[in-house]
Amino acid sequence: MEGRCGEGSHTQSPSCAAVRSRKPCMDTGKHREKASSKKTEPRRATRPSSSDTRGLNGTSTEKRLRYSDCDYTPLCPLLSVAALSLCTRFYRITEPPHVCWDETHFGKMGSYYINRTFFFDVHPPLGKMLIGLAGYLTGYDGTFPFIKPGDKYEHHNYWGMRGFCAVLGSCLPPFAFLVVLELSHSTPAALITASLLIFDTGYITLSQYILLDPILMFFIMGAVLSMVKFNHQRLRPFSWSWWLWLLLTGVNLSGSLGVKFVGLFNILLVGINTAWDLWRLLGDLHLSLHLIARMFGLIMLPLFLYTTIFAVHFVILNRSGPGDGFFSSAFQSRLIGNNLHNATMPEYLAYGSIITLKNLRIAGGYLHSHWHLYPEGVGAHQQQVTAYLHKDYNNLWLVKRPNSDDFTWNPELIRHGDIIRLEHKETTRNLHSHLHEAPLTKKHLQVTGYGINGTGDPNDLWQVEVCGGKKGDPVKVLRSKVRLLHRSTGCVLYSSGKTLPKWGWEQVEVTCSPYLKETPNSQWNIEDHVNPKLPNISLHVLKPSFLEILLESHIVMIRGNSGLKPKDNEINSKPWHWPINYQGLRFSGVNETEYRVYLLGNPVIWWLNLFSLGLFVVMVSLCCVALQRGAKLGGTKKGKQVLMEGGGLLFLGWLLHYLPFYTMGRILYYHHYFPAMLFSSMLTVMAHSTVSVCLWKLQGYVLAFIHLLAMGPFSMCSFYLFHPLSYGMNGPLAHDPTSSMAGLRWLDSWEF
Amino acid sequence: IKLFLSKEAVLSTHLYEYPALMLSLLHSFDEVYYGQFVSLYMKRVFFIDESGPPLGHMILALGGYLGDFDGNFVWNRIGAEYTSNVPVWTLRLIPALCGSLCVPLGYLLVVELGYSHFTALGASLLLLMENSLIVQSRFMLLDSVLIFFLLLAVVSYLRFHKHLCCFSSLWKWLWLFLSGTSCAFAVGVKYMGLFTYLLLLGLAAVHTWHVIGDKTLCNVMLVQVVVRFLVLVVMPALLYLGFFYVHLILLYRSGPHDQMMSSAFQASLEGGLSRITQGQPLEVAFGSQVTLRSASSKPLPCWLHSHKANYPIRYENGRGSSHQQQVTCYPFKDVNNWWIIKDPSRQSLVVSSPPRPVRHGDIIQLLHGMTSRFLNTHDVAAPMSPHSQEVTGYIDFNVSMPAQNLWRVDITNRESDRDVWKTILSEVQLIHVNTSAVLKLSGASLPDWGFRQLEVVGDKIYKGYQQSGVWNVEEHRYGKSHEQKERELELKSPTHDDISRNLTFMAKFIELQWKMLTVRNEESEHKYSSLPLEWITMDTNIAYWLHPSNNAQIHLIGNSVTWTLANLALFIYVLLFLTYLLRRRRKIEDIPEACWEQLVLAGVVCSGGWVVNYLPFFLMEKTLFLYHYLPALTFQILQIPVVVEHLYTHVLRSPSQHKAFGGVILAALCSVYFCYRIFSPLTYGQPELTSEELAALRWRDSWDILFRKR
């Protein structure tokens, strides 16, 4: 204990003194903390006694006083950390002046918000909304198309969006500083953590572009910081600062989930921490409002904010755009410019109508066919019928009588139980099914397009059935749920939701299911309806409620996420590549002539982190076994707590943000590791500061000092070596001895 | 008790085997799959099965061995009749025996958990009347064997744990030994056994942790911990290796799956490649005639190939080509797979004497033996993978497209930088000198103009180590003939000479295990495949067999009543557990400490067993069937009596409640029995039912019960 405090006062005592005088200007939370910190001093010192009562003795008074020095937030180091991280993030932020990597997606989506055009993305909307807002405030007008990486921005104002991401990205080192300070009460340790993050080329690169990751990590770090602060308020429940940090945790959680679903892991971390906390409280036998307060702060509030984010999303995006087809007819009727918005069309289905059929499964597509056959060996060699999520001319079908193609007389309505044929408008083939097994769902029958110019065979006959209707009911456009029963085999037209392989253009399989249970997969509704012989009537589609929209958009997003499968020829990044820094990501440029930016973590820092993870595990297991054997660890009680509780929390965070990727089937990228890396960096310092304290105990003062402080300059030097990775490289590639990066390509798998 | 147990065993064995004999002429479903491996075992032919480790197949093959099966049967059609040389009885004996023994093991398990014999009897009755377990153990399938070993492992561990008080008892350590062995056997039968093994390890770790914390033990503690580690971790691992050792000893002949293995592995099998490669010269020299095999077996194992056909001038999509000779990768042995290694500085195509070996870093040219074209690549997009370079056999069309046919040899598994290129053993990258592209199998196959052979490209952005970019020399001889005609004759003749090469067991094991884990068959949905969610409610079934002429049939359908009860028991257990846990935390003790510990242990074994054997399937992407659920189900069924006894003794207090509950238990057992009786025609395949009776048995719409059209 003395070791760390002594060390702390060694290096930081002048600034500590300065802090006290300048304290109030920090922020409101700190202010309150300072005001109350003197009161709580004695109580805080008893905190270790929850696990061990020996901590309470008279001789510790002096230690307590010295120890309390470390409880203040040293302002100077914090400010310098913030300044340094801002500098590193903003240096050459406008370079390169063209679209880099995923900016093409997220920049484009920011523009969609400015233009209020509806789109579909697999991530929740908050991140893109913030990007859009930042662009809007800095004078970007949303006109740049963001077509592909490498497009020049020219006169468009892109710096605002990049700057916004960089600001959030540069909050990470100060946050990490505060977290480690809170967990270890050691300013040098906190400084080193910050320097690890400041000088990591990977974080710099990732913070400098219009991406979701800086925003996501900002919220993740924010949540961790507020959680740690909240834990610290444990002994003063229901005080102002207690509430503040609780609510801030909730806000940050909803933020991280609102940016990417990776936020779920963060919620899991906070959830486990809270459950552990409650479990402890439960054992104290003091029944209290804790559960309700936490439920409010960590569940209700985030949930409310999260839905608010979506509400804002739907309110802003009220114009029809490229994402319409992914959503149900009812959803589309909300969008200005969509043909279902204030639609007018014939109300009842009649023979001779041209229609599109939309599957009622959430994110179900339109019944679709095209000039391609099923390949050899997949059922009969006939034309493919699929479900397709985009609006297209190939989705149009013509409704015909079972026996004649004559539409001259007055249009006759189709009623429940009628037999029809459906002819594909573009290819004039009939919707057909027969006793061949379907391509993917082997229990079902294959559905094909068959016949020429609308003449087919008896297998083209389908019986129309309105769900919940009785014989003679007409079929309402948009509002009736229709099932199509195949006449000769008795099966029902069905969309399985499985994606066909390449030969089916990765569209969705359509089959004929012999199981007649009513599920949304077998129900269709008629979305577009054109029949010149019938009067158009203004149709009010039942407006979906907000909760329905919310649910629908989530299911669409989850489907979209799991649909992101690795392509055949692409080399997929594997989770085990990440901690060893095996391979980076090209942000911009490939050739010698181009301006190249390469996302790669500073290898020195990353390998140090990897080593420290192992070190941490070894130390904790040794410590556990020693304790279990009843060994006296003496004065390192405090050190033990720092290592086991603080380190344990961070280790859990690392595990939760890393391991789930092993189970994911979707395509993975290197940058998915960065949230986990935050925890790993903080853990590194926790482990090493404990080692230092032990060295200190063993009278190896100089060693301990060198050990801890060497890490800072070490990371700085390596940063100097690798900084061109983030700030851009020109000229020859690294294997060329004349290159600026010559000799730095330590692994063959790095591509710079 | 012993008497009772033996009765139980006899009863169940009888029940199981009698119909097994009756139906022995026909085989079903997965028997076709396992049967082929049994045949291969009998013939000692090497195979590789990615579905599981070899022990399971070996156990089935033991049945064949006992019945003097010669392996001559074609396992290709479900429902085909067995010929007289197939000892169906012995083949099905071992799974049936294991299945029968599961019943007494269930009994023992409940007793070991500390519950009464009455409860244990209930557990064994439930297992006895579980139709799905009966069906699965009456065929030549591995699930009953797996469940047997799982239960044995858990029972013997619990026995061991019970003996904790007396430290030096030999019996105690024998139980631990038995537990470790059956863990290894379970994992050896199917990878699924790993889940229960891990659960057991977790349990053992917690117990060991208590031992470590026991401060009365000093040196004994260390011995205890080390022995546990040795028996539960090291020994199973060694046994697992042992299974592979026996497997490789038994299967020494080459067979249908040879091509999936590396050349070195194939050379160690009798027949097949070893017949060809025996006695080839070891060191590749300038002038050597070689075939180059790709180290990647995706999509197919193949050899670098060329033939007298050119790339089409224009492809279907309008892109142009160099119109030079095609170079492909061909999955069959062919005389066109031969290439000659030439020194660029000399004209000679024969090996000088003494031979000048090719070393790492040397520049070579590769000459196609039959057409005398040089292997060449240039900056023209490859036909199927336009981001890579086209690889050709160079033809000079006089269109200012010079030959770029120099390749640098890069031995990836070299020990020093002057390593010699060795036949079979060396893995080599061929790096193009002009463009530093790497010769690579792209994985795509060419259309009709390329005879559907596999595409070979020069990859400019090649990075790291990729199997598709690595080649090895498989067949090799020193070229002797100077003239083209002689050379062609020479290429067609087999290689000869004599040296033998042997891989160590560990090398073989690692390769085989790696192949088994990575090789994936094309997974597609099966008519009877299902999703894990459908298993809990048994929304699915599998038809195993249908009589060729009448309606008699066998289905994998469980006892609906038992399944419902098991789900209910699990739910009640979780509820009870949570209630007790929270109340204990609030210092309200409803049940005594010992009883709580007993309940927790029972929960870890039964509910834990269910969880670890069930939940992982949600993450798997392979085709799943209902029988994958059976191990989880077994543990879940054992949960029923545990919960019942707990409710009876600790929750219900008044005698009237006890009486009522007793009535409920009796009623439940009766309905289990009736359900078993009702479905037994589908379990045993007899008696034959009419269509109406079958329709009445279709309790769920989603069950596929077969009706024969009259």
Automatic annotation (TrEMBL), chain A:
It is a multi-pass membrane protein. It holds the Pfam family PMT. InterPro entries: ArnT-like_N (IPR003342), MIR_dom_sf (IPR036300), MIR_motif (IPR016093), PMT-like (IPR027005), PMT_4TMC (IPR032421). It is an enzyme of class 2 (transferase). Keywords: Endoplasmic reticulum, Glycosyltransferase, Membrane, Repeat, Transferase, Transmembrane, Transmembrane helix. GO terms for cellular component: endoplasmic reticulum membrane. Belongs to the glycosyltransferase 39 family. This is Protein O-mannosyl-transferase 2. It comes from Pygocentrus nattereri. The gene is POMT2.
TrEMBL record, chain B:
Residues 281-344, 355-412 form the MIR domain. This is Protein O-mannosyl-transferase 1. GO terms for cellular component: endoplasmic reticulum membrane. It catalyses: a di-trans,poly-cis-dolichyl beta-D-mannosyl phosphate + L-threonyl-[protein] = 3-O-(alpha-D-mannosyl)-L-threonyl-[protein] + a di-trans,poly-cis-dolichyl phosphate + H(+); a di-trans,poly-cis-dolichyl beta-D-mannosyl phosphate + L-seryl-[protein] = 3-O-(alpha-D-mannosyl)-L-seryl-[protein] + a di-trans,poly-cis-dolichyl phosphate + H(+). Its main location: endoplasmic reticulum. It is found in: Endoplasmic reticulum membrane. InterPro entries: ArnT-like_N, MIR_dom_sf, MIR_motif, PMT-like, PMT_4TMC. The gene is POMT1. Pathway: Protein modification; protein glycosylation. It comes from Pygocentrus nattereri (Red-bellied piranha).
